[in-house]
Design goal:
Blueprint lengths: L1 H30 L2 H29 L7 H8 L4 H28 L5 H4 L2 H11 L39 E2 L32 H9 E2 L6 E6 H14 L30 E2 L12 E2 L29 E2 L8 H4 L3 H7 L60 H24 L5 H29 L1 H7 L16 H5 L12 E2 L15 E2 L8 H4 L4 H10 L1 E3 L7 E2 H4 L13 H11 L5 H7 L8 H7 L3 H11 L7 H7 L10 H16 L13 H9 L2 H8 L4 E2 L14 E2 L30 E8 L2 E8 L3 E4 L3 E5 L2 E2 L5 E4 L5 H16 L4 H7 L11 E3 L5 E3 L11 H8 L10 E3 L20 E4 L4 E4 L6 E5 L4 E5 L1
Helix pairs in contact: 1-2, 1-26, 2-4, 2-6, 4-6, 7-18, 7-21, 8-11, 8-16, 11-12, 11-16, 11-25, 12-13, 12-23, 13-23
Length: 935
């Protein structure tokens, strides 16, 4: 199958490269307008620039053993999942093309115009379509079966049928207030050095970190109430609902920069400037910073959404579903979901590590070999600088051990539930088991977050004010994660991260063989888990050690501000400065604007500020840097506020987090409390479950706190797992009534069915296994007379896989439709010992003659190719090649001294043969190799 894909891609590339000039001319003839023809050429150039910059640079930075700096590690952690990457690329191409067209128009008119004043809506629509953006700007087509209301789509789309993109992955973050950009539509706050806010420039973010936020590792206060697991859960849930990939393009049309090499504000770079006295010995003037990827149809592209004279401001993309749906476990795209599932299991299991086990329990699998090797290598392996990372539903699972621990815990919980559900319902297909287990795991994420976590963060009064009790699904509530929540409010948790990773023994004491690690020693280190005693020591440390307390003059420790993603003999990053810079990059309005949004009084004077920030020294430092309260960045202002009663946030963040959580709950059709999602009995069982129970079921711990978020002492505050309640899965046993005419449905050979209800009637939805075709009705309904149709049949399709037909059709198109240029395409893949390109000449019969030398077969490894280069050329048969008396010899091709060459295309499935038109030769072939012989 992989070979089929390679052939298909190869042929498409061949057609594109060989015939693009004709296509371009054809477009010009069809359009009949030179201006529109220029759009095509500009767009193709934009694609070339974006692809060269985006993918070549990313490969260079993230290749095996190639990640050598914290900035590259940060890039890896912000690397979009392939589906998100395709959309980000389309947005980059669209924006680049519009910028190029703008420059062309301005050169002609010698005027400085906004692009939406220069380009027509028709042309912008053409660019949107040709760039690949248009499909992601249109509403998706929603399925219309009973299963659509039973299991949530992996992308989150169609949750709300009136607004099918609400909450879906790869859509723009929501805006609760209009963004503030210095040019009105795209430039971040602080982009232009001379730009003033209330008469003052914004302070450099690194200065804010140094004077207000940063504190020594040794000067941190432990939380007297909550465990480190509270902090870890917040970070884990953040990774369930929000991920904004950073721009990876280094070549915005005509002037983009490599952000690792420049300290200038030049798209997509927005570097963090360092004051001279605080620069490292090497003299680096800045820390690299990439802007977040724009969503399709925003920024320069925004005219597509409205009046051409007004740009739609730049919006940032969320690569994940907004919903609390355990996408950390299952992913947010079909492609990633396919990677995560165990397709050989009849129990609907997820993949686990193939080699290593944790006292018989599973570990996360490693990412496939083609993924960047960004993590610490296995200890004791000489010569390895980086190794593979874990594969999970979110790409940041290996960032820190606490995240890895929770990802591992939920992988095990899914597989435990799936095995138990299959034992209860032997008739369930693997997919039905997988979907039911996924549904339960998602519900548990929702319960633990809204019942146990959020009230502790907001405090009981603010929780009641902003979230309140569940009153049912609200189709008018937009669950899309907001920009201010993702970029500022929910980043409060960074101030609760302890600088130490604690691992405890079975008595919950410091482990004699596993001492505590400074956080910078554990970044992107899977072997901290795999060779560090497994999951149990980490879970014990999270349960029995306190989180760091968010104190106004101890906001973030040096592990995050001075040693983020640090590698040996390299520079470092600063998480606090990144947070501040990200807020400016996203155009978030200032602190006072958000207080007003939440109905809180604006803080206009130093005395006002002191009412919100009890530490006078901190309030004075903030005003000294920002000069005016309206200039304060929202993340810093919210972080420094006094806590609400029995809370871990101040009033602003309590408002923003509460509003978001209510929207995530009320706007989610699949929320666990919606009566149409689970039965009454199932909801009662779900309510009994807890994070402590999940730990009991999936680790070797036998005693846990009843409340996993409450820090306690061992053993007095710990209970036996036997006394920790959990759900009884009997509520999920599927039974069929015996008093109706339908009874138990018939199974179908080589197929499966899933049971659901529609308008109060029992419905079966059938599907066939891979390689089989469904014949008959897909959906059956139970009536008073029985099932309304006979069960379908699953018959061997008797057809080649679709990919094979695509390959054959593409090959036929290449050979038949463009025979005159086939030799040109072939020579692109035929390499001589030198880098020169040999000319094409004409021989007696008029057939193009290629003088071709050594050739590396498609899909051949460089090592294999090198071995082939030392042998006789004709010994290895290439996938695509040509023969000539002075080129291929031996088994590859033979011809007489006077003849023209034979041309052939060889694949594992068929042989296309072309003899010279002179008639002197015929092509003979056996099972493996064609030969040219005299006719």
């Amino acid at each position: 199958m992989r070979a089929l894909a390679v052939l298909s891609v190869t042929l498409v590339m061949a057609c594109t490269e060989a015939f693009f000039p004709f296509i371009s001319r054809g477009k010009e003839l069809l359009w009949g307008k030179p201006e529109e023809s220029r759009v095509s050429s500009v767009l193709e150039e934009s694609k070339r620039l974006v692809d060269t910059a985006m993918y070549a640079t990313m490969q260079r930075n993230l290749k095996k053993r190639g990640i050598l700096s914290p900035a590259q590690l940060l890039s890896f952690s912000k690397l979009p999942e392939p589906t998100s990457g395709v959309i980000a690329r389309a947005a980059e191409i669209m924006e680049t093309s519009i910028q190029a067209m703008k420059r062309k128009v301005n050169l002609k008119t010698q005027q400085s115009q906004h692009p939406t004043d220069a380009l027509s809506e028709d042309l912008l629509s053409i660019i949107a379509n040709m760039s690949g953006c248009l499909p992601y700007m249109l509403p998706p087509k929603c399925p219309n079966t009973c299963l659509a209301n039973k299991y949530r789509p992996i992308t989150g789309a169609c949750n709300n049928r009136d607004h099918p993109r609400w909450g879906a992955s790869n859509t723009a973050l929501a805006r609760w207030l209009p963004p503030v950009y210095e040019d009105g539509f795209s430039q971040p706050r602080g982009w232009n050095p001379g730009f003033l806010y209330n008469g003052f420039p914004l302070p450099p973010v690194r200065e804010v970190t140094r004077h207000v936020i940063q504190v020594s590792n040794e000067v941190v206060t432990d939380d007297d109430r909550y465990s480190d697991l509270l902090m870890a859960w917040g970070q884990y849930i953040d990774h369930d609902i929000a991920f904004t990939p950073q721009s990876t393009s280094k070549a915005a049309f005509g002037g983009g920069a490599d952000c690792q090499m420049t300290c200038e504000n030049q798209n997509p770079c927005f570097p963090i400037q360092l004051p001279e006295e605080a620069r490292p010995a090497a003299g680096t003037a800045c820390l690299p910073f990439y802007r977040s990827s724009a969503a399709c149809g925003t920024g320069d592209q925004g005219a597509l959404f409205g009046n051409l004279s007004t740009a739609n401001p730049r919006q940032q993309m969320n690569g994940l579903t907004s919903f609390l749906d355990a996408s950390t476990v299952y992913g947010s795209s079909p492609a990633l979901e396919r990677q995560l599932r165990n397709w050989t299991s009849a129990e609907g299991l997820l993949r686990v590590h193939a080699r290593l086990r944790d006292s018989g329990r599973a570990y996360l699998p490693f990412a496939p070999p083609r993924a960047p090797a960004a993590c610490a290598p296995e200890p004791g392996i000489p010569g390895e600088t980086r190794g593979p990372c874990f594969l999970a539903g979110d790409g940041r699972a290996s960032e820190v051990p606490s995240l890895t621990a929770l990802h591992t815990l939920w992988l095990r919980e899914h597989n435990r539930l799936a095995a138990a559900l299959k034992a209860l319902n032997a008739h369930w297909s693997a997919d039905a088991v997988y979907q039911e287990a996924r549904k339960v795991v998602g519900a548990l994420h929702q319960i633990i977050t809204l019942r146990d976590y959020v009230p502790r963060i907001l405090g009981p009064e603010a929780f009641q004010q902003y979230v309140g009790p569940y009153e049912g699904y609200d189709s008018t509530a937009n669950p899309t994660v907001s920009n201010v929540f993702s970029t500022a409010a929910f980043r409060f948790g960074h101030a609760t991260i302890h600088p130490l990773v604690r691992r405890l023994d079975a008595s919950f004491q410091e482990h004699p063989d596993l001492p505590g690690l400074w956080l910078h020693q554990a970044f992107f280190s899977p072997w901290t888990l795999l060779r560090g005693g497994g999951l149990d020591p980490l879970i014990r440390g999270l349960l029995a050690r306190p989180a760091k307390l968010q104190v106004q003059d101890q906001l973030m420790n040096e592990e995050l501000t001075e040693r983020l993603f640090v590698l040996s003999n390299s520079s470092t990053l600063d998480l606090a400065s990144i947070n501040l810079q990200r807020g400016r990059d996203h155009g978030l309005p200032g602190y006072n604007e958000w207080r007003e949004f939440c109905g809180l009084p604006r803080l206009e004077t130093p005395a006002d500020l002191s009412t919100a920030i009890a530490s006078r020294s901190v309030a004075d430092k903030i005003l000294d840097l920002y000069k005016h309260p309206d200039n304060i960045d929202v993340w810093l202002g919210g972080l420094a506020e006094n806590f609400l009663p029995r809370a871990r946030t101040g009033p602003l963040f309590a408002c923003l987090i509460g509003k978001q959580m209510k929207a995530l709950r009320d706007g989610d059709w699949f929320w666990w409390e919606n009566r149409r999602i689970f039965t009454d009995a199932q909801r009662r069982e779900l309510e009994k479950h807890s994070l402590s129970r999940v730990i009991c079921d999936n680790t070797g711990l036998t005693r846990v706190p009843v409340d996993a978020f409450q820090v306690g002492k061992f053993p007095e505050d710990f209970e036996s797992c036997d006394s920790i309640p959990g759900m009884n899965l009997e509520a999920w046993r599927e039974t069929f009534p015996q008093d109706d005419k339908c009874g138990f449905p018939e199974s179908v050979e080589n197929g499966d069915f899933v049971h659901c209800e529609e308008s109060g009637r029992r419905v079966l939805v059938y599907s066939c296994r891979h390689g089989y075709e469904l014949q008959g009705r897909e959906q059956l309904t139970c009536t008073q007379e029985g099932w309304d149709f006979q069960p379908p049949l699953c018959k061997d399709s008797g057809r080649l896989p679709r990919a094979t037909w695509v390959s054959i059709l593409l090959a036929a198109l290449l050979i038949g439709g463009f025979a005159g240029l086939t030799s040109t395409v072939i020579c692109r893949w035929t390499r001589t010992g030198t880098k020169s390109t040999l000319p094409i000449s004409e021989t007696g019969g008029g057939t193009p003659e290629l003088r071709c030398g050594k050739h590396q077969a498609v899909g051949t490894s460089p090592q294999r190719a090198a071995a082939q280069d030392s042998e006789q050329v004709g010994h290895t048969m290439p996938h695509v090649s040509s023969c000539h008396r002075s080129g291929w010899t031996g088994s590859g091709c033979r011809s007489s001294s006077a003849g023209a060459p034979c041309i052939f295309l060889f694949t594992p499935w068929f042989l296309v043969r072309s003899a010279p038109s002179s008639g002197r030769f015929s092509l003979q072939a056996n099972d493996n190799e064609p030969e040219c012989e005299p006719a």
